[in-house]
């Protein structure tokens, strides 16, 4: 029996508790005919009993699972020989990891000795004992909660109020988890970025024109300790995102207008799903398409015109990224345009406006908040895209506005800096967190600006 099976058993007990609660509430008032004498509907009494049966047991199981590994680890360490227990924390952690791998039948990094075998057997026994104890405790608590919830049911019992109160606190808990998760992400990035700025000045990072994070081997290289100017990265990011938006926004918005205002029902039923298929294609496939088809096409045609086109260019990455983003703008804009009340269209057409005038002067202004939201989502996707840039635009941090040259983006450099076994004690690795923090702040500013636009026009049209 595993934790998954235990959770399924709890869910089954909750279903049983629900049925028992509903049946008891009906019996107390003499069947279905007396339901009106109950304070709440029978379903609420069932939910109340199910909550008492499952919620405390699930909370105890969650707490048990979160503490189990640490307790077992301490017990295993306490049973090891003195020479092993006194090892430095890093070496002791490797020993414990080998013991866990040996107990689970995995490969260990060192030779197995009798002490490790005994510790592995001890580890297995502790795991089995802990699991059996958790099964007994959780199932006993679930049955006790079922019995208590069942006994509390009475005709005047306010089951609906109790159930809605529990649901409200569950929603509050989920919201709190989301908030603290976001806060944890921001703080984890912020603390590492502060360590980076203790080594590299903020002004050099924000206004530097050279990006060469690797540590220099010779004194005549760019900076004796690397160059960390972020401007080339953001220039490449904005250049590729701008090209992608120039492709995606007109095509996506015009597609949405045609599908919602001009296309027939039959054509729309086929065209809209086909268009949205683009959103389901993996980005690595787009990267292959950009690297093997679009980039060579641009290079060959540029050579015919006498242009110096790099084999990896911002134009190739931006064009393919724009194709990838079209469904985001098209689908969201189509939904927003369809949400505009039909009465506004009828009023415009009724006073003599043509269909195109109605679209330009009535529908688009009314749908502008949603369209701005769709474009913002597309911009965020373009800024955060990595695979297409790696395969089609390259890794060179060039400060250029020429779309025919190779550039790189912030997200690509973040991935590059954190690839492999890295220690978080060098400016090269910590630079990834500084880039992430700056990217977060820029995205936040974009969201604030978009929210201002949405609120302004929403007040005008609601």
Unreliable stretches: none
CATH architecture of the largest domain: Orthogonal Bundle
Number of helices: 16
The CATH class name of the largest domain reads Mainly Alpha
For the largest sheet, list the strands in their spatial order: 1-2
| CATH superfamily descriptor of the largest domain | MetI-like
* Strand-pairing-aware structural class: mainly alpha
Q: Radius of gyration in whole Å, from Cα?
A: 31 Å
Give the N-to-C terminal Cα separation.
57 Å
The name CATH uses for the topology of the largest domain is MetI-like fold
Strand content: under 5%
**How many structural domains are formed by the residues?**
3
Average pLDDT rating: 83
Number of strands: 2
**In sequence order, what are the helices and strands, one letter per element?**
HHHHHHHEEHHHHHHHHH
Query: How much helix, percentage-wise, in residues?
Result: over 70%
Largest sheet: 2 strands, antiparallel
Please tell me what the overall shape is: flat
């Amino acid at each position: 029996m595993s934790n998954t099976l235990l959770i399924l058993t709890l869910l089954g007990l909750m279903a049983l508790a629900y049925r028992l609660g509903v049946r008891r509430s009906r019996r107390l008032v003499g069947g279905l005919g007396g339901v009106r004498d109950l304070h709440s509907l029978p379903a609420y009494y069932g939910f109340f009993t199910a909550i008492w049966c499952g919620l405390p047991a699930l909370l105890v199981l969650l707490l048990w699972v979160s503490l189990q590994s640490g307790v077992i680890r301490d017990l295993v360490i306490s049973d090891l020989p003195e020479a092993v227990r006194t090892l430095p924390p890093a070496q002791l952690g490797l020993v414990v990891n080998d013991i866990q791998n040996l107990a689970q039948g995995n490969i260990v990094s060192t030779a197995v000795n009798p002490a490790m075998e005994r510790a592995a057997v001890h580890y297995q026994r502790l795991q089995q004992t802990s699991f059996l104890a958790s099964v007994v405790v959780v199932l006993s608590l679930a049955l006790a909660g079922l019995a208590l919830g069942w006994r509390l049911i009475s005709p005047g019992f306010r089951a609906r109020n109790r159930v809605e109160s529990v649901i409200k606190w569950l929603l509050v808990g989920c919201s709190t988890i989301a908030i603290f998760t976001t806060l944890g992400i921001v703080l984890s990035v912020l603390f590492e970025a502060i360590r980076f700025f203790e080594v590299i000045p903020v002004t050099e990072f924000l206004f530097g024109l050279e990006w060469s994070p690797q540590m220099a081997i010779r004194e005549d290289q760019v900076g004796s300790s690397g160059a960390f100017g972020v401007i080339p990265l953001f220039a490449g990011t904005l250049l590729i995102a701008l090209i992608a938006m120039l492709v995606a926004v007109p095509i996506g918005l015009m597609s949405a207008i045609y599908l919602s205002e001009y296309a027939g029902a039959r054509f729309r039923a086929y065209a809209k799903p086909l268009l949205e298929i683009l959103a389901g294609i993996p980005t690595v496939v787009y990267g292959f398409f950009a690297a093997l088809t679009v980039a060579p096409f641009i290079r060959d045609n540029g050579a015919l015109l006498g242009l110096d086109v790099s084999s990896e260019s911002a134009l190739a990455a931006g064009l393919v990224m724009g194709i990838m983003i079209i469904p985001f703008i098209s689908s969201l804009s189509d939904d927003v345009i369809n949400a505009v009340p039909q009465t506004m269209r009828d009023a415009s057409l009724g006073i003599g406006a043509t269909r195109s005038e109605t679209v330009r002067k009535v529908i688009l202004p009314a749908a502008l908040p949603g369209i701005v939201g769709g474009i913002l989502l597309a911009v965020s996707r373009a800024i955060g895209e990595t695979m297409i840039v790696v395969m089609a635009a390259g890794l060179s941090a060039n400060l250029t506005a020429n779309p025919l040259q190779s550039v790189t983006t912030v997200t690509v450099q973040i991935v590059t800096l954190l690839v492999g076994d890295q220690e978080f004690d060098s400016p090269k690795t910590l630079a990834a967190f500084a880039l992430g923090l700056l990217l977060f702040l820029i995205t936040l500013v974009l969201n604030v600006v978009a929210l201002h636009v949405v609120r302004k026009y929403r007040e005008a049209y609601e």
